[in-house]
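Dear U.,

For the methods section draft, I wanted the exact inputs and outputs in one place so we can describe them consistently. I've listed the two proteins in the order they'll appear in the manuscript figures. Please don't edit the token lines directly; just add comments below if something needs changing.

First protein:
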Amino acid sequence: ELAEQLGVSRTVVRDAVRVLVAKGLLEARPGSGTVVCGPSARSVVQSMALFLSCGSHRVTAENLVEIRRVLEVAMAGLAAERRTSEDLAQMRHAVSKHLKAIDAGDLDQCAGADWSFHVALARATHNELFPLLLESIADILIEVRRTAQQVPGRPRLALRYHRTILRQVKAANVEEARQAMHSHLREL
């Protein structure tokens, strides 16, 4: 029916259904057909990332900094309120990876460890939307980090800010954690 309605071959419809099943938007149920699924968190992130990378509009550095200030300053405060010992361990692990990458002079690893810290902080809010929102701009943020890591002294400066944020989150100092993140993002 779809092939006929859309004026395409059945092969085209089958391929489209396979792609939509792979993206989690359709579910093929043997014996009962194909049904539309609600979007998953992963499909929302993929859609936002695709939207941002499609090039039909420009995401400026200023746009990115504004979004990060709104999201990440709030995340730091919430993480200070809600973090668990496991959350703190994840943040410490990211800081440790960052230091090892700096010592090894591996800028790609620095960028990855930097990103890991921010993701761990987002998860420490225990609000599933923060990691999703952060992940939707991940590709852009990782590219920005790779560029920033090439500026002499920048990896160590970022690490110093991460340690300060971690200290404030660990101490449950909400306002100080927010301020530490604000100071970190002001350096961008």
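Second protein (the one for the lower panel):
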Amino acid sequence: MVGVFPIAIGASIFGIIALLIFALGGDIRTQIAKFASSYQVKIDRADLNVKPEDFVLALVGISVILWLLLAFILHAPVVITLLIYPIALAATLFGGSFYLTFRGNRRIDTFVQQLELVLRMLAGALRVGLGLRQAIILVTEEIPDPARRELMRVIGRTNIGVTIVDALEDLTRSMPCNEMQMFSRVVKVQQSTGGDLAKVLEKLGNTIRDRRRVFRKMNALTAQGRFGAAIIGALPILVGGFVVATQPEMGKALMHTFPGNVALGIFAVLEGLAIFSLNKILQFDV
């Protein structure tokens, strides 16, 4: 019953807040719309068919479930239990942002891998006399997503009066990568000064191919370091889990006492800083 008491208090607080929002005539979606708008770009980049408000509401719901689970496991005092929720909410929001970033970066990587073929197909279409817009339309019929979807957005913007240069610059903002920036700038310069765009696009495709070769070599050279970083990051968690499982008294002291909870919090902070530092060390800008 003691462990259930803090949960009941927290649930009552959330219920009172919800009733106040409803009584004041405010929709909770409008209350979080401004905050949720910061997720719009990441959601579009990750190609998720969900509204930012719905995504944030889902994160809030997950944070409540996580908080209740932690409160049930730790059996902490009332004050500590209530203070756990902001931590759970922050962790959930960070996790949601990390998921969107991871999904968006993976989609950008796939787009970059397709971009070399796109440029070569565009160069071939330009050589047979097609304009750039017609060449992009032809390419969208031959390639899969995500390049197909993004190029179709470019065509859609040109249909409402946006110039092809501005449409490609919009694509650069939605798919931020050096390769797309080079493509956009090449087209912008060619539209201003003229020249053989097909030849330039073919050379740009060769440049992208060489960059991909460098990235593959870099990944091979840093594979041992990344594997070591994964082991170093997982080792404290595995050792801690083993100790808690084999030493019940020590596990109880860590999970159900205030000094133990403080030690776990310090461990979580240090572990996060270590993983962040190792990831930064193994990142290279090419």
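Candidate sentences for the figure legend, describing the second protein: The two ends are 58 Å apart (CA to CA). The mean pLDDT is 83.

Thanks,
Y.
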